[in-house]
Design goal:
With 585 residues, the protein is α+β, with helices and mostly antiparallel strands. Helices cover 34% and strands 16% of the residues.
């Protein structure tokens, strides 16, 4: 069934195509979304059924988890263009079953060589967001190739084929795509190339119509030979032109030009970095190290929480400790984390058990926010989208990648069909800080792709989009799953609350109306409502060789989870609580 679907897409792609962004009502059926799937063999979970379908097709054809992750990511660049794509960057965490090792790849965007610590100083944030000045050198393609060179079994050209077919043949516009386009319409209308692609007839494409991007299909065909065709030559020249001379509509005067050069693109690399690791309840939790602040902040919070028997406490008391541990970890994150190639980061101290004990001692019966940062140096001791893929051999990929704000910089590279990021707005605009700008520097990130091992083998892998709330989303899912005994689908679906060392806790309505929130208010916690936090995906590895792929049931329109060999839906919760949470102590 999956193969027939992708073959049908290829046939559609072979016919004459309309102009970029043109929509049409006729549309062959697309895969049905389901948020949870349990079975054996490989598994995949993304925010979109077409991307998950592409991953499963690669697994069916003998590819491994890395191959499938790249194929799914390429499709997401087509169907989720406002969240990710080849114009952005991200972080990939890979578990290799052959030697039970965890590897991380840093595909974060870099500042152009002309950047200085004062480049962004005094510039209004909104002006940096929609500009060439906020565009970092993209890292996505170098990430894919680095992963394939070390772990993959298939060529990039083969893995881009599903995405190329979908870009050419089109996909059905859903409510999320329509709403995100409409929300960015004023920004998109500033640029000729962007409005031509995403605002046909001057409006967002209607729900149920078919959206095509033949220019992106051609771009995928060109880059199939390898990343050098992106970082050098015609595509690179088009990127630099779009950054330095944004393709604005006549009369638009408030878009700042950027500083990127061809040399900046040619020099980009996606280095392998050491993962962060902390022990938690007998498990090994691996995450992404700096310049991501995700692994270290999640790890520090878990170290603090390990001092409490959360499963033996009331839910309200356990949530109080969760919120306070998150606030303490964020206080340190905001001071110490940046690009390790430019600043000295006391990572070992931040993840030391002795430092966690110091920070834990600050937690009282009522909230203490805002907390000051601590001093870990005398202690020794890891808009956006996320996908999670595993294969039948036990390899796992947890991959978060992005173009920053929804819609990125708003600039579509003319003739090539992809949006450029605005990741450099993640820098602190003032000089003299760990995360201040510099030439070639990577801005601090909150992306938190995570893989948890038990006795050296995969236990659960998770991640989420959501800016700084990515960290608390990953942390809360892990606490839900490990401490509260929830299945992974339950842990993902549960209402979320995000404390980032602020006076108020950002929380979803379902959390705010809970009895626990009322009790937490008596401890001094104040809540600010937000419609939703994150859009997580994950895979849980169950006894007997079973896996459960899980995505959001509702958030962001619901995600898509699939396994190669599905079993009865009732097996989605087969990992008994006796084998989970409390039994780990």
């Amino acid at each position: 069934m999956r193969r027939e679907f992708l073959v049908a897409l290829a046939v559609v792609a072979a016919v004459a195509l309309p102009a970029p962004g043109q929509v049409a009502a006729a549309a062959p059926p697309e895969p049905v979304k389901q948020a949870t799937a349990t079975g054996t063999g490989g598994a995949a979970s993304t925010v979109d059924a077409l991307a998950t379908e592409a991953a499963l097709d690669i697994l069916d054809r003998g590819g491994n988890a890395v191959d499938a992750a790249v194929a799914a990511a390429a499709v997401l660049g087509v169907v989720e263009p406002f969240s990710c794509g080849i114009g952005g960057g991200g972080f990939m965490v890979v578990y290799s079953a052959a030697d039970r090792s965890v590897t991380t790849i840093d595909g974060r965007e870099t500042a152009p060589g002309a950047y200085t610590p004062t480049t962004l100083q005094g510039i209004p944030f909104a002006e940096a967001v929609t500009s060439g000045l906020g565009v970092g050198v993209p890292g996505t393609l170098r990430t894919w190739q680095a992963a394939l060179d070390r772990f993959g079994t298939m060529k990039l050209q083969r893995l881009l084929a599903p995405a190329k077919s979908i870009a050419a043949g089109g996909f059905v516009v859903d409510q999320t795509f329509h709403d995100q386009t409409a929300a960015n319409a004023a920004r998109f209308a500033k640029f000729t190339s962007t409005s031509e692609l995403f605002l046909p007839d001057g409006e967002a494409p209607p729900v149920g119509t078919r959206f095509r991007n033949p220019e992106l299909a051609k771009t995928y065909a060109q880059i199939g030979s390898g990343p050098d065709s992106f970082y050098r030559g015609k595509i690179a020249a088009a990127i630099v032109d779009a950054v330095r001379t944004p393709p604005v509509e006549p009369g638009v005067t408030d878009v700042r030009p950027g500083l990127m050069t061809l040399a900046d693109l040619a020099a980009y690399t996606a280095p392998f970095r050491a993962p962060t690791r902390v022990g938690y309840r007998g498990l090994d939790v691996y995450g992404m190290g700096p310049p991501s602040s995700g692994g270290s902040t999640v790890g520090e919070a878990l170290n603090i929480l390990e001092g409490y028997d959360l499963a033996g406490l009331s839910r309200e008391e356990a949530l109080h400790y969760y919120l306070e541990a998150s606030a303490l970890a964020f206080a340190d994150r905001n001071l110490y984390l940046g690009d390790p190639d430019f600043v000295s980061i006391p990572l070992a101290g931040l993840l030391a058990d002795s430092y966690a004990a110091e920070r834990r001692a600050l937690i009282g019966p009522t909230t203490g926010v805002p907390y000051p940062p601590g001093d870990p140096t005398d202690n020794g001791g890891p808009s956006t989208t996320h996908l999670t893929v595993s294969d039948r051999h036990g390899n796992v990929v947890s991959y978060t990648f992005t173009i920053e704000q929804t819609g990125g910089s708003g600039i579509v590279v003319p003739g090539y069909g992809f949006l450029l990021n605005n990741e450099l707005t993640d820098f602190d605009f003032a000089p003299g800080r760990a995360n201040s700008p510099a030439a070639g520097k990577r801005p601090r990130s909150s992306m938190s792709p995570t893989i948890v091992l038990r006795d050296g083998r995969p236990y659960v892998a998770v991640g989420s989009p959501g800016g700084a709330t990515i960290i608390t989303t990953a942390l809360q899912i892990l606490v839900n799953e490990i401490d509260f005994g929830m299945t992974l689908p339950e842990a993902i679906a549960a209402p979320r609350a995000s404390q980032r060392n602020l006076a108020t806790v950002q929380a979803e309505p379902g959390f705010i109306v809970s009895p626990e929130a009322t009790a937490l208010a008596a401890r001094g916690h104040r809540f600010a409502s937000t419609p939703e936090i994150g859009a997580a995906t994950g895979i849980a590895f169950l006894p007997g060789g079973f896996v459960t792929a899980a995505a959001e049931p509702i958030r962001r329109g619901g995600g898509s989870a699939m396994v190669q060999e599905p079993t009865a839906p009732t097996l989605a919760g087969t990992r008994a609580k006796a084998q989970r949470g409390r039994a780990l102590r």
